[in-house]
Amino acid sequence: MSTARSWTERARDREPEARRATTDVVPLLRFRGAALRGRSRRTALGAFGVIAVLTVLAAWLPAYLPGAAGSDGQTLVLSADILLLLPSAYLGVLVIAIVSAVASGGGRELLPREQAVAFPVSPTTDHLGALLMAPLNIAWLMQGWTVLGATAFVVGTRGLPAAQVPVLLWLFVATALAQAVAWTAEWVRRGPRGDWTLRLLVLVLIVTTAVLIATDRLVPLLDEAPTLQVALAALYGSGGAWAGWFTAIAWLVVLGVLAVVAGALMAHAVSRRPARDELRLESSVQSPRTNPASDFAALVRTDRVGIWRSVPLRRGLAVLAVLPGLVALAGALEWAMLCILPGLVASGGALLFGVNSWCLDGRGALWRDSLPVAATVAFASRVMVLVEVLLLASLLTLLLASVRAGVPTLSQLVAVLCATVVVTVQVVGASLRWSVRRPFSVDMRSARATPAPPLVMVGYSARLALSTTLTGMMFTVTARISDWHWSVLIAVPFLLFSSYRLVGTAQQWADPVVRSRVVATVAS
Amino acid sequence: MSSPVVEVSSLWVRFGPVDAVRGIDLRVHAGSATALLGRNGAGKSTTMRVLAGVIPPTGGLVTVAGHDIRTDALTVKRLTGYCPDVGGLVPRATPWEHLQLAARLRRLPDGWEERARDLLEQFDLGGAAHRVTAGFSHGMGRRMSVVLAAFHDPAVLLLDEPFDGVDPLGVEATMDVIADARARGAAVLVSTHLRELAVQACEHAIVLRGGSAVAEVSAHDMSGEEGAGVYRALLD
Fold first, then answer.
1. Nearest-CA distance A289 → chain B (Å)
2. Would residue B115 count as lying in a domain?
3. Edge-to-edge strand list for the sheet holding B67-68
């Protein structure tokens, strides 16, 4: 007698499976949360509180600013400039979410891969987890706050809560759509000739954007973006046009649900294909090189392979080097504004691995530390490699951005160079300080891995973004002064201060007790 | 008998509120091999890490060839060869790159390559010398870690779980490495859960429990069924 299940049994099983995958997210979140104890738990709760407060402020406060719709008896017309930009801003949320999710190979993991192997985690659960983790990213948060703030400014205080509902829904839809696109991209990448197919697709997108810019058709196209409907929905909510508002809300809900389901289906498809690029690199054969000429060269060589033979780091660095440059190219940024870019790139590069630098050694950290070499030399090697990676990415970005920026004046050129060097040293200093203070055991083989837990990454990225943006802005001012000496004069104290702190971190690293804690943690 | 190459007195290691090692004493003489046995968390790997200069002792005195590990850790690292209990390999480097790094930092004279190639062949890793180690199996990783610990002929060979997940040929090669080290006068310390292999490789055994040494016996006394009973009794 056949013991196979009937089609009716299978149909019955299918529903509980989907429900089980959804409910599995809760225990995984609890498991993740249970790892936070004592001070870490209080810090995490505090961070969530700060995010919530900032979100409420971003969605509410701009409505009361001078120039906002309805302020001082003014009409909507005064905030019309911002209104015109709203659809593009909403679209920007989607674009950044897609880039972030695709670059990280399908979004962040709720549970790291090496921990998840012990549990029957379904791809649907993984997908839902990645959706939940997506907002724990400073780029996502900043974009969210920006569009909420801009919407509040545009609609004013009248009907503000109703106006923000479609915007919040759009943030959800954009995240879900990005996740679905990311799984699709990962599915393509893992297929036959996937790498090249994906590269070709990216190239086509870049060329298309370049053609649109060159023929002045990008702005008219952005004006017709479907996200215009989100802006209209916000205005309907503000103006009490409930029929239009409800219709838009219904559409957004349907779109969001469809995107989540599509993402789950693609997550299952991805799970059936092995990660070819990771496997290829892990089993690759490398040509032997000549013996290193010095201790420092030997250490630098080992540190470099940790970066350039890592799929996620190579991919992340490529995105970081190219994307801001392309955005600057599209926006035809002037030289003074280019001072902001190195900070952006350096911060992003540090967040790929730099904030937990010793994790690159993985379980080899114990062996490396047993080698007879001064701790300061090993530290200097790490500094060197981090500096060169960040500088390389920044210079590539600047090269791209400079194409439409025209010929710089000497003052502008010096300002950009000073900004690049200063933020690089700043970021390297902060990264290594955090690497020594808070090491984490992380398997960086997966493109979805982050060098620190998500909430810690939000803290790191916020601090890096703040310090490097302020520094960059300072050099945008000196770039406008005709005397180039000002940039150098301002750069010197910054460099001295960052170097002083870097030396302090090196001294901490030289302490065997501190070093053993770092090494034992990353190797565990 | 000559003075011991490895001398540990009242070693104490504390991690926050946890005392991982609580007053261990041990001596290993040149040309001899000592096994560290005990349950998980007994303090074996922590003791090995201290001897490798990776973890500083919280208390006690540890000397290797007369050098105090607190004040002269770099010299101690030059004298020792260490196979850690976990991993031991930089994920994206190849075995040859590991050997090049170690040879450079240990100032090995020209010609070290031949010795390295011989050892790689001995451990059946010759064909994987230029492969990225991230794709290595656990056993391959263990064998490579033993190669890295032994290839510079250290005065003190520290092998932490060298047999874990290793196939019989790998075990045989590790036994040969231990025998060679003893023959040239090195002091060998082997930490393992595999009592029979420890007995085979070493002449002395120290049983650790809860961070303290509870027995120091001849390896012969720990062999066979009778030795298994003795060992079992010492674990509780």
1. 8
2. yes
3. B18-28, B6-15, B59-64, B67-68
CATH of the domain at B169: 3.40.50.300
For position A232, what pLDDT does the model report?
92
Is B162 contained in some domain?
yes
CA A326 to chain centre: 16
pLDDT tens digits, A482-494:
898 999 999 999 9
Q: In this predicted structure, what is the pLDDT of residue B64?
A: 93
Longest dimension (CA), chain B: 51
pLDDT of B132 over the 90 cut: yes
Q: Nearest C-alpha of chain A: how many angstroms from B24?
A: 20
**Domain range for B122:** 6-235
Contact B106 A519 (CB under 8 A): no
Beta carbon pairs, A and B, within 8 Å: 140
For chain B, how many structural domains are there in total?
1
Q: Using an 8 Å CB-CB cutoff, list chain B residues near A368.
A: 90
> Per-residue confidence at B8, pLDDT binned at 50, 70, 90?
very high
Confidence bin at A74 (pLDDT 50/70/90): low
The token duo for A435 is 């690497």
Nearest-CB residue to A368 (from B74, B90, B134): B90
Residue B177 lies in a domain: yes
With a cut of 80, say whether residue A233 has pLDDT above it. yes
Q: What residues of A are in contact with residue B93 (Cβ under 8 Å)?
A: 302, 305-306, 364
pLDDT at residue A439 is higher than 60:
yes
- Ramachandran category for residue B170: left, alpha or beta (phi over 0 → left; psi -120 to 50 → alpha): alpha
CA distance A383 to A372: 19
Exposure letters B51-78 (e unless 16+ CB within 10 A, then b): bbbbbbbeebebbbbebebeebbebbbb
In a domain, B194, yes or no: yes
What would the DSSP string read from start to end of A65-90? STTSTTGGG--GGGGHHHHHHHHHHH
Calculate Rg over the CA atoms of chain B. Answer: 17
The verdict on B116 touching A (C-beta cutoff 8 Å) is no
Q: What percent of chain A has pLDDT over 90?
A: 48
Q: Pick A295's closest partner by Cβ from B55, B88, B104.
A: B104
Q: Cα–Cα distance between A422 and A498 in angstroms, integer? A: 8
Q: Are B213 and B207 in contact (CB under 8 A)?
A: yes
CB contact under 8 A, B106 and A305: no
Instruction: Record the tokens describing residue A59, joined without a space.
Output: 């969605």
CB contact under 8 A, B91 and A291: no
Of B53, B56, B132, which is closest to A281 when you measure between CB atoms? B132
Distance from C-alpha of A501 to C-alpha of A503, rounded to nearest angstrom: 5
pLDDT band at A292 (very low <50, low <70, confident <90, very high): very high
Instruction: Give me the residue from B101, B130, B131 closest to A302, CB to CB.
Output: B101
Chain A contact present for B103, CB below 8 A = yes
Which residues of chain B are within 8 Å of residue A363 when distances are taken between CB atoms? 84, 86-89, 91
Mean pLDDT of B179-200: 92
pTM of the model: 0.85
Domain boundaries in chain A? 57-282, 295-523
Find the helix or strand (DSSP H, E) in which B28 lies.
strand B18-28
- Token duo for residue A89: 């801003």
What one-letter code names the amino acid at A280?
R
User: Quick check: A11 pLDDT over 80?
Assistant: no
